[in-house]
UniProtKB/TrEMBL annotation:
Residues 9-21 have a biased composition (Polar residues). Signal peptide: none annotated. One of its GO terms (cellular component) is nucleus. It comes from the Eukaryota. Belongs to the sirtuin family. Class I subfamily. This is NAD-dependent protein deacylase. SUPFAM superfamilies: DHS-like NAD/FAD-binding domain (SSF52467). It comes from Lachnellula arida. The keyword Zinc applies.
């Protein structure tokens, strides 16, 4: 067994909770990855809920994640917004309140510093909590794949009203929140070691991913001319098959009147959070920009996957694309026995099991001190 590492934090924004870092890998593995990270010029990072867990942000994406007794995955859908906009707004108002009250952890800070120190770093986050921005991550090196709870847009597709960084709390009187954390408590408690029942979703997604890969010529994917074609999100169908989208309990939840929800100052339609819901596609221009950056040079040195199984299409595709470009892969996750398709790794890759808020500063320390 390796000895416990005594770690001095290079970060000053938040104090280290402990001077002893939990054992998450052998010295040999840590050194091997550290050396490679140091020499890497082009690095792509994909982040998921595991990165924000140490900031007290619950996991929302698994089938086991609930809010007020309703499945989060059922509420985070365009179908639900169209039918029950008051419920969807109430849910997002509570998530906004949680995110506004949370601070970035040392994992967010470590990534932000890495991106500032190395020009060739691009971070893709599936989190919508805005914590990477709070950690002062360089804006041009951060892509919020699923949007942000702090951005608001018009629900009318013909209208271009878009509000960036709306930190107003409450966003309107009818959506005032008093006890957000209580309503998320069951999932919040799981967030550090979330083994919630996501397997069913995960395995169905894996099947779809494999099917999708068979249908696509992977060499075509790497051509710079590739443009992301908007397509129906397969996850919407999966969620529908797992649970009814709108249950009677959801319909019975007390919510504000539609007239009291935020409305567009330009066209009077309902406003909505500028996040990507199930049943919607990622931003096409953003996706193309990421692909263009990847293809700027022949090679990508390293792909780091933090706190996510990378199975939600098309975020997970980036791992495959990075591998095709020669990248070695490093996975940082609380539970390495639930890595889905990421389990199929090569010998040259790394998997580190533990809390990203503790592991990332250890890896990036050398770079920060240089
Ligand atoms: Zn509008």
């Amino acid at each position: 067994m390796p000895s416990s590492r005594h770690q001095k934090s290079p970060f000053s924004m938040t104090p280290s909770p402990s001077t002893d870092t939990p054992i998450f890998a052998s010295e040999e593995e840590i050194n091997s990855f550290g050396k490679y990270l140091h020499s890497s010029k082009r690095i792509l990072v994909l982040c998921g809920a595991g990165l924000s867990a140490a900031s007290g942000i619950p996991t929302f994406s698994g089938d086991g994640a609930h809010w007020r007794g309703h499945k989060c995955t059922s509420i985070s859908s365009i179908d639900c917004f169209e039918e029950l906009p008051g419920l969807v707004w109430k849910y997002h108002a509570e998530r906004r309140k949680l995110a506004l009250g949370a601070g970035p952890n040392r994992g967010h800070e470590a990534l932000a510093v890495l991106a500032r120190k190395k020009n060739g770093v691009r971070v893709l986050t599936q989190n919508i909590d805005g914590l990477s921005q709070k950690a002062k991550h360089p804006k041009d090196r951060l892509y919020e794949l699923h949007g942000s709870l702090m951005d608001i847009k018009c629900s009318n597709k013909e209208c271009d009203y878009y509000e960036k960084d709306n930190f107003k709390e409450p966003i309107c009187p009818a959506l005032a929140v008093k006890d957000a954390i209580e309503n998320f408590a069951p999932t919040a408690r799981q967030s550090f070691n979330d083994k919630a029942s996501t397997e069913e979703v995960g395995s169905k997604l894996s099947e779809l991913t494999l099917k999708d890969e068979k249908e696509n010529n992977e060499k075509t994917i790497l051509k710079p001319a590739l443009k992301f074609e908007p397509r129906p999100n397969p996850l919407a169908d999966i969620i529908a098959s797992l649970s009814p989208i709108m249950t009677d309990e959801m319909k019975a939840e007390p919510v504000p009147d539609v007239k009291d929800l935020p409305h567009c100052p330009k066209c009077s339609s309902l406003l909505r959070p500028a996040v990507v819901w199930f049943g919607e596609s990622l931003s096409v221009p953003q996706y193309n920009e990421i692909i263009a950056w990847i293809d700027e040079e022949k090679r990508l040195d390293l792909m780091i996957v933090i706190g996510t199984k990378g199975e939600v299409f098309p975020a997970g595709k980036f791992v495959d694309i990075a591998k095709e470009k020669g990248a070695r892969v490093c996975v940082v996750n609380m539970d390495k026995s639930h890595l889905g398709t990421l389990t199929a790794r090569e010998k040259k890759d790394w998997v580190f099991e533990g809390n990203a808020a503790e592991i990332l500063p250890v890896f990036f320390e050398g770079i920060l001190l240089n």
